[in-house]
């Protein structure tokens, strides 16, 4: 890019960002989505190899650029990589936010924390994850369902932080059965379970009421675990109840996780995170340094198959407008190739994706330069992305939560993307 064009583009970004923030600050956006299915691409999805294709590069000759050609989509002027062929005709229900950015580049753990909590690591406070905030603000959609479910990797980045354990996740390890430790053994018949619950009720009635909040939370946890161990919630895991052709369309293990996510929101789960960084496909997941990039297309194709099936499945069940699909990753990938033909890390510009949720989708939001390395228009901070998600599910993104007596804003001064709210 020539110096004069670069200066003009930089000025446009600054002015546009300032005006956009002023407009958004004057309007309180509130969507009507009821659920969130969050898909986590651990390792760092490269935008120019997926949702923001550019000119073709050459890893052997070290010519920067995309690894795959782009194809047209349902939205005029919006292209995606050739391996997203099932999502391409659905991009009118999708917005690829191409200008997400942060300053964490070379540390996966720090960037993962940032993209789950919306803030950098702090030495004085443990911030809650996006899922825990949604669970805290909205709760479960129905009685007897957990508000927050994790099908992935349990750690502090997904946790409740200062909100406390009651707003943490229910962790699932197997799509074919309920939560480990909660599902009843076959030897516990309904009659035996009923006797146990009656015995517990008698013990409780013999105790005086407690003013200790910790004891009340413990009692609430017991009640929820009894419901989650029962047959009604566990029917969510009977994937073989779904039509065979639908299960086939969703694809392998990751696709079955997405199908389970749809079944869980039907049961009343508010927020579900599903991880997709299955290393066995290419040996490295989305962290495509060196030779990991050679089979990157297998990851992209699996993502394409599962997410496109999830979108159409939700749409056919009239649930897409009530379910926000979110695809996030810790950072992106630069256009240059490393010594082994793969790519390094890039936080200055990368893509996250929203679909459904009743938003006014436009295929793509924001513009990057000719190699998806720098932002040209409409930068979106991580806080802005979080504010957009909160607003879509009816959460006041401007309110304070409290870590003890300390007020903590729901987002780090984030403001929603106005265009997505019509």
Features:
422 residues; globular; Alkaline Phosphatase, subunit A; 31% helix; 10 helices; single chain
Quick recap of the structure?
With 422 residues, the chain is an alpha/beta fold. The chain has 2 domains: 13-178 and 243-421, Alkaline Phosphatase, subunit A, CATH 3.40.720; 184-228, no CATH class. Helix content is 31%, strand content 15%.
Could you give the topology of this structure?
Blueprint: H1 3-25, E1 35-41, E2 70-72, E3 79-81, E4 94-101, H2 108-117, H3 130-138, E5 148-151, E6 170-171, H4 190-205, H5 213-228, H6 231-234, H7 244-250, H8 253-267, E7 271-275, H9 296-316, E8 323-329, E9 350-356, E10 363-365, E11 367-368, E12 375-377, E13 380-381, H10 382-392, E14 400-403, E15 406-409
Parallel strand pairs: 1-7, 1-8, 4-10, 4-13, 5-6, 5-7
Antiparallel strand pairs: 2-3, 4-9, 8-9, 11-12, 14-15
What does this structure look like?
It is a single chain. The protein has 422 residues and is of the alpha/beta class. It folds into two domains: 13-178 and 243-421, 3-Layer(aba) Sandwich (Alkaline Phosphatase, subunit A), CATH 3.40.720.10; 184-228, no CATH class. Helix content is 31%, strand content 15%. The protein has ten helices and 15 strands. It has helices at residues 3-25, 108-117, 130-138, 190-205, 213-228, 231-234, 244-250, 253-267, 296-316, 382-392, and strands spanning 35-41, 70-72, 79-81, 94-101, 148-151, 170-171, 271-275, 323-329, 350-356, 363-365, 367-368, 375-377, 380-381, 400-403, 406-409. The strands form four sheets. Strands 1, 4, 5, 6, 7, 8, 9, 10 and 13 form a nine-stranded mixed beta sheet that branches. A two-stranded antiparallel sheet has the order 2-3. Strand 14 and strand 15 (406-409) form a beta hairpin. The two termini are 33 Å apart. The relative contact order is 0.22.
């Amino acid at each position: 890019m020539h110096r004069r064009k670069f200066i003009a583009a930089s000025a446009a970004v600054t002015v546009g960002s300032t005006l956009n923030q002023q407009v958004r600050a004057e309007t309180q956006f509130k969507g009507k989505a009821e659920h969130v299915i969050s898909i986590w691409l651990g390792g760092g999805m490269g935008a120019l190899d997926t949702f923001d294709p550019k000119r073709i590069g050459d890893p052997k000759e070290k010519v920067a650029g995309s690894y795959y050609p782009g194809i047209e989509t349902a939205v005029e002027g919006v292209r995606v990589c050739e391996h997203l062929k099932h999502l391409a005709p659905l991009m009118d229900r999708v917005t690829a936010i191409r200008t997400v950015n942060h300053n964490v580049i070379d540390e996966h753990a720090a960037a993962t924390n940032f993209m789950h909590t919306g803030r950098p690591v702090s030495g004085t406070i443990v911030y809650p994850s996006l899922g825990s905030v949604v669970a805290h603000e909205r709760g479960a959609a129905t009685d007897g369902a957990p508000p927050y479910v994790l099908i992935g990797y349990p750690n502090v980045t997904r946790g409740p932080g200062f909100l406390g354990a009651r707003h943490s996740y229910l962790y699932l390890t197997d799509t074919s059965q309920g939560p480990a430790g909660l599902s009843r053994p076959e030897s516990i018949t309904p009659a035996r379970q009923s006797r146990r619950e009656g015995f517990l009720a008698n013990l409780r009635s013999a105790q005086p009421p407690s003013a200790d909040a910790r004891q009340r939370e413990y009692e609430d946890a017991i009640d929820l675990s009894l419901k989650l161990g029962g047959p009604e919630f566990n029917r969510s895991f009977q994937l073989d109840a779904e039509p065979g052709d639908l299960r086939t369309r969703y694809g392998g293990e990751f696709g079955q996780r997405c199908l389970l996510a749809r079944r869980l929101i039907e049961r009343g789960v508010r927020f579900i995170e599903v991880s997709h960084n299955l290393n066995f496909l290419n040996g490295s997941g989305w962290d495509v340094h060196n030779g990991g990039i050679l089979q990157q297309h297998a990851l992209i194709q699996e993502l394409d198959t599962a997410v496109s099936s999830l979108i159409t499945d939700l749409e056919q069940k009239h649930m897409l407008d009530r379910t926000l699909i979110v695809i996030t990753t810790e950072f992106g990938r630069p256009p240059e190739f490393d010594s082994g033909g793969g790519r390094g890390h890039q936080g200055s510009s990368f893509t996250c994706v929203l679909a459904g949720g009743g938003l006014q989708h436009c295929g793509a939001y924001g513009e990057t330069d000719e190699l998806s390395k720098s932002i040209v228009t409409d930068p979106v901070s991580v806080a802005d992305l979080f504010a957009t998600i909160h607003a879509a599910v009816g959460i006041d993104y401007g309110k304070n939560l409290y870590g003890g007596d300390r007020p903590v804003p729901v987002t780090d001064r984030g403001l929603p993307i106005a265009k997505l709210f019509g």
